[in-house]
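TL;DR need structure tokens for one chain.
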Amino acid sequence: MCLAVPGKVLDVEDRDGTRMATVDFGGVVKEVCLEYLPDLKPGEYAIVHVGFALQRLDEESAKRTLELFENLGLLQEEFGDPWEAAEAAVSEWQTQDDVQGEVRS
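>> reply
TL;DR here they are.
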């Protein structure tokens, strides 16, 4: 699933002509492009989708939404540990290989 998630802007900088921000999504920090909201400032909140800040959001709404996503397990699903996800995928592939090996025998 790919959600539009609210986050708090921690820092803003210009990188090779593109405004970028460091954004905190309830403890998960990611880099975000500000091309659609070039006037966004540190301390403000925005809804982010696929790495782009799309809409400014007030702090109360952002915190409520992050809390709801956390309670539903959606933040872990969206921002889960990439190594954990990779290990799970490898384990699943190994299980499928084992099952297919048994079918062939």
